[in-house]
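Progress note, sequence design subtask.
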């Protein structure tokens, strides 16, 4: 995983940056205080970490990619950037007041070990907020029509909401909640379904390079043929019919929140 993101990280910040609305939602669900210390697990180049730090909050960014962390340090040298993973964060027990994670759960090697580690480093009463997508949601992306193998491989690596909630409970977390998010026209972070409402975005090689599904899970042949078909459908207007067949009310992504109970400070 670190090798994959060392490769992606070369030009990652050209198309990936903190979206203002998603940043506000992370803030809303995390409820940070100026006196607390917070963790961004799988922080990448630190786009969202940096936004919180700019607001005066004390954040630690952890990621397994040295390349990503080098770019994060250039963005904000005052933040503590650490090489590590969800399963091995390398922080003391009960040392952080809250945790965020942005499109990171599917990259963890072991979901239960990751949540156990988060439980260990989180203080009693602390909250976490993860932004992710579920397999069910991703099956509703119209990208499946043009890049079926790539989407199938992407969906397989995503943990189901049921699995996430079960592991959260096993590890001791309580009060799980989910909040749906549908991609908006003004989205500034160009992740996988950024082109939901603007298919032409996928014709930009820089955008595709910043999306792990395109850069690591696809074949050149499928991308080439899928883009040609997408271009034809955009030109003819058929894309509107394709998009309509995939309309649903599942949301495109989810915020998942939980807490470490106050009564069990272990």
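Output:
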């Amino acid at each position: 995983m670190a090798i994959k993101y060392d490769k992606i990280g070369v030009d990652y910040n050209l198309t990936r940056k903190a979206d203002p609305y998603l940043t506000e939602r992370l803030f809303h669900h995390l409820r940070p205080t100026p006196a607390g210390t917070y963790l961004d697990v799988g922080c990448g180049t630190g786009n969202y970490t940096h936004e919180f730090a700019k607001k005066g909050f004390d954040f630690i960014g952890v990621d397994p990619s040295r390349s990503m962390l080098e770019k994060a340090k250039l963005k904000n040298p005052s933040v503590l950037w650490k090489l590590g993973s969800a399963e091995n964060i390398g922080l003391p027990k009960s040392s952080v007041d809250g945790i965020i994670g942005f499109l990171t759960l599917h990259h963890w090697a072991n979901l239960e070990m990751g949540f156990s580690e988060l439980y260990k480093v989180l203080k009693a009463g602390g909250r976490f907020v993860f932004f992710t997508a579920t397999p069910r949601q991703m099956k509703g992306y119209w990208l499946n029509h043009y890049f079926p193998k790539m989407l199938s491989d992407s969906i397989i690596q995503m943990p189901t909401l049921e699995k996430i909630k079960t592991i959260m409970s096993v590890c001791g977390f309580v009060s799980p909640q989910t909040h749906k998010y549908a991609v908006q026209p003004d989205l500034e972070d160009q992740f996988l379904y950024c082109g939901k409402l603007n298919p032409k975005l996928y014709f930009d090689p820089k955008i595709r390079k910043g999306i792990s599904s395109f850069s690591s899970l696809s074949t050149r042949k499928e991308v080439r043929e899928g883009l040609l078909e997408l271009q034809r459908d955009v030109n003819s207007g058929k894309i509107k019919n394709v998009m309509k067949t995939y309309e649903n009310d599942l949301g495109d992504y989810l915020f998942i929140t939980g807490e470490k109970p106050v009564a069990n400070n272990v």
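The chain has 13 helices and seven strands. Work on this subtask will continue into the next period as scheduled.
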